[in-house]
Amino acid sequence: MIDAKRILVVAPHPDDEVLGCGGTLSLCTGRGAHVHVLIVFDGAAGDPQGKFESADYVARRQREAEAGGRSLGLTNYTFWGLPEGHLASSEELDQGAERLAELVARLQPELVLAPWVGDGHRDHRTVAEAVSRWLSLAEGGGREMGIDVWGYEVWSELPPDQLVDVSGVWPRKVEALEQHQSQLAYADLLAQMRCMAQRDGSGQYERFQRWEPVS
Ligand SMILES: [Zn+2]
């Protein structure tokens, strides 16, 4: 995984790319990989108590993502800015799959990372479902193109097929998350992130599940 040279990361919200696979991405960019980050939703619901200027909030979250990315060697972002927090219709999921196929055709990644299919957050599951549909597309589908696809975890623990030791770049992952002040204002994400990474004992790990073909 860390030998991939062209990577597309699909993140539901700004910060999921850091929480889910920021350490792995840092290792990859350190080895010269080109990484593109797609952030699907606008993140507008991340300020339920109105602690931040609302007119600027979506742009603020984009700026936080880009600032955090600099700690991980990430400089290429696409923001779809879709409204979050609703149950996606089948048509919307198909549209997402088609749009993903277009992006993949342009970027030609050899590795795609996305939230795993068992993620407990509705928006994350929506993205995982759209990725599964993209993989199954007759034309432009990931299976046809032989792309390696892995699911990452954010807050829902996955049964891992692969662990990546990110201990060596952990300070960069922390630095990246610290840019997301609009989210840290609501929860101690740093402590939660550490708990997820260290749950098997010493060292920090990111965990991934191989995306099984959809039957
Ligand atoms: Zn999220």
Describe this structure in words.
It contains eight helices and seven strands, in the order E-H-E-H-E-H-E-H-H-E-E-H-H-H-E. 42% of the residues lie in helices and 19% in strands. It has one domain: Rossmann fold, CATH 3.40.50.10320. The mean pLDDT is 94. Strand 1, helix 1 and strand 2 form a beta-alpha-beta unit. The longest helix has 18 residues. It has 215 residues and is α/β, with parallel strands linked by helices. The protein is globular and about 45 Å long. The protein has a seven-stranded mixed sheet, sandwiched between helices. Helix 1 packs parallel to helix 2, helix 2 runs antiparallel to helix 6 and helix 3 crosses helix 4. The chain binds zinc ion. Zinc ion binds next to helix 4.
Strand element count: 7
> Using only CA atoms, what is the Rg?
16 Å
What proportion strand?
15-25%
Q: State the helical fraction.
A: 40-55%
User: What's the arrangement of strands in the largest beta sheet?
Assistant: 3-2-1-4-5-7-6
Average pLDDT number: 94
SSE sequence, one letter per element: EHEHEHEHHEEHHHE
Distance between the termini: 24 Å
CATH homologous superfamily assignment: LmbE-like
Number of domains: 1
What is the CATH topology assignment?
A: Rossmann fold
User: Which regions contain 5 or more consecutive residues with pLDDT less than 50?
Assistant: none
Helix and strand composition category: alpha/beta
Which CATH architecture would you pick?
3-Layer(aba) Sandwich
Report on the biggest sheet. Answer: 7 strands, mixed
> How many DSSP helices?
8
Ligands, deduplicated: zinc ion
